[in-house]
What does this fold into?
Amino acid sequence: MMARGRDSPAQMLHHSHDLRCTFKEICSELQPNQRALTNLRAAKHRFKSFQKPLGRTVRLFSCVHTLMVKVAIGRNDAQGGRARGWLEWLSARNVLMAAMLADAADEASALLRFCDDEQMDSAKLNSHIYTFLRRVTDLFGEKQLCLQCPGYTTYCLEYLQQPLVWVVRGKVASLAAPTADDIGFLHEPHADVAQVGRC
It folds into this structure.
């Protein structure tokens, strides 16, 4: 729903020139101090092609959300249906989960970059894996440092302090800051694996 599925904004943008043009205009209006992006880089051929669109969707969430609302209201085709479905799927828990997955993907990318080098020193692989395990344990284990250290998760928690309200299929929907239950759920060992996959 955030990076690889055909209903995700990243994939919709990747396959539509019209949506990319609209998205660029929205980014220029909402984030004038940043370089306007035309897409979220969601080609399906390597891990980075999931990591980058996921991170960009989180970082540019206000722009992505604005685009999806515009598509949901203005189109009655398949793209409009996908946008409405995505807006109905949105919840503070799902957005927070996506941000945490983006942080985890960044940590995995650092390890993959080291391994994806023909000149890799295999003697150093053990220390790189140890560093990766320590980082993800600190970020997502009992310490929950992902809620404090600069990254996608803390960025998500910050922008969700301003509630978003929209109308989809005639119903008012909203998105606000995650509750303590939302945050606690994501750190429970029995958290729904299927929900993580759908995100």
In short: The radius of gyration is 18 Å. The chain has a mean pLDDT of 87. Residues 73 and 80 are 7 Å apart (CA to CA). The longest helix spans residues 92-115.
